[in-house]
Amino acid sequence: PLPVPPGRIAVNINIDGANINGRTRDLTVIGLGKSSLDALIAGLAKAQGRVVKGDQLSDRGFFYRSDQFNFAKLGIPAAYFGSGMDFVGRPEGWGKQQRETWEEQHYHQPSDELRPEWDWTGAVEDTQLFFLLGAHVARTPEMPRWNKGDEFEAPRLEALKRAK
């Protein structure tokens, strides 16, 4: 059980992993098109000089396998995003190659540990966006909502009704 009713929780911001390869020109939003958070995230990304893209690995079902899913089932709008694949100062396809190499050789392996050569500038940029998103939601009287017809809209409306 949650410490407060789901209808009183404005948003779940899922921070899962960090960009260790540097700054990107894009931002990947897992679940793009599901909630009112999309426009806010796009505006914050634009202020950083980045564009928003949808999940480039949607066949893996990350939205339904990640931590925010249990919050979404209760109706709580979820923000799950991270750096994209278009890395500043790197050739096209470099980000995809880095991700594939990491997943094949290191992810959940003994070698999956901190490395001195990592470039944390992308993680910093993402963290700033996470913070600004949370600050904006906290200052705004209107709660984020699921888009009309989304599978999580009905649980959200019920949660808001119960919270009154």
Automatic annotation (TrEMBL):
Stretches of the chain forming a coiled coil according to its record: none
Lineage: superkingdom: Bacteria
Peptidase M28 domain: residues covered: 8-129
SUPFAM superfamilies for this protein: Zn-dependent exopeptidases
Pfam families per UniProt: Peptidase_M28 (PF04389)
Gene3D superfamilies registered for this protein in UniProt: Zn peptidases (3.40.630.10)
InterPro entries the UniProt entry points to: Peptidase_M28 (IPR007484)
Name recorded for this polypeptide: Peptidase
Native source organism of the sequence: Stigmatella aurantiaca (strain DW4/3-1)
